[in-house]
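agent> step 3/5: call structure_predict on target 'LL-diaminopimelate aminotransferase' (Candidatus Choladousia intestinavium).
agent> reason: downstream docking stage needs a structural representation; sequence fetched in step 2, passing through unchanged.
tool.input:
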Amino acid sequence: MFKVNDNYLKLPGSYLFSTIGKKVKAYQEAHPDKEIIRLGIGDVTQPLAPAIIEALHKAVDEMGKAETFHGYAPDLGYEFLRNAIAKNDYADRGCRIEADEIFVSDGAKCDSGNIQEIFSIDNKIAVCDPVYPVYVDTNVMAGRTGVYDPASETWSDVIYMPCTAENDFVPELPRETPDLIYLCFPNNPTGSAITKDQLQVWVDYANRVGAVIIYDAAYEAYISEENVPHSIYECEGARTCAIELKSFSKNAGFTGTRLGYTVVPKDLKSGDVMLHSLWARRHGTKYNGAPYIVQRAGEAVYSPEGKEQLKKQVAYYMNNARVIKEGLQEAGYTVAGGVNAPYIWLKTPEKMTSWEFFDYLLEKANVVGTPGSGFGPSGEGYFRLTAFGSYENTVAALERIKKL
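tool.output (status=ok):
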């Protein structure tokens, strides 16, 4: 008789955003007359930029002609896109990343979950706390996290690095030595950012102890401060210790189009084994790339027109972030984030848990956010709001919250 992967059974409850969806659905069914404003899930709301739409249409037309039709994409992704990424995201920022070190995929979320497959089950992971749930959940599925403690909501074999108000939501180096270190900056959910000097400390540490940093830079387009790096490869020595994940979802609105990439430098090795070759083998065997049409759309992101149009789109969302942050401060809340990231991290009212505040906002203001405890134990007592809604809904939501 077949057997299931028992590690999946270790996952507590359901996925955070599934729980939110069920709660909102139940409330809507009980209160069909209520208009709910969603500032919870980080899904973009603005349409694709004109330059991207034009590229999509052109690529669709090509697919309709025998002489320009494209079938399976190359394993690493089309060279035209990888060259554009290498130039604009790396060379223009002084980073040495070659096109054949870039692996195009259908999104950073998939890559952040799949990348752990090339590492031994014996590796110990370190994660920021709070953190995007996918990092820990996929390591649970692999059997790398040990035993779950419901009381503390932690795993025995995971090193948690608290990100609190006391350390400005930037983790300190762990006391226990990890093998894999997950870092996400600008951060989801806290909205915090890390300076180049601070990130250099992590790169030096990883090289010293022989660890690999898995660096999620999905929100780099929202960076506004000059001392905040857009890539970990801006730091000296990062090529020998870091893998970087990037997404087109938030910077270009591809949440419904799906495109991302992972960078694995050829200098990153375990003994004589290049991680680049392992990921290339995994990528080629279990290919999760994006189709030609979408990769042409990704290329348009780097066109002069695309860059200009997307600057305006990012500015739109960051204006929403400003509205949320200032509005919450006026209402007396303690807030962080919203400067280099489209997320606002607010402290819940005294004696109110994250989920209690979720229910409070849903019932009293008909506004949906994300409970901080869903991102880890240090997220208890906090709440995340996203700036990805429309401006009109953002303003309306803040007006409702101010009246509470």
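agent> step 4/5: record observation. Residues 359 and 368 are 9 Å apart (CA to CA).
agent> proceeding.
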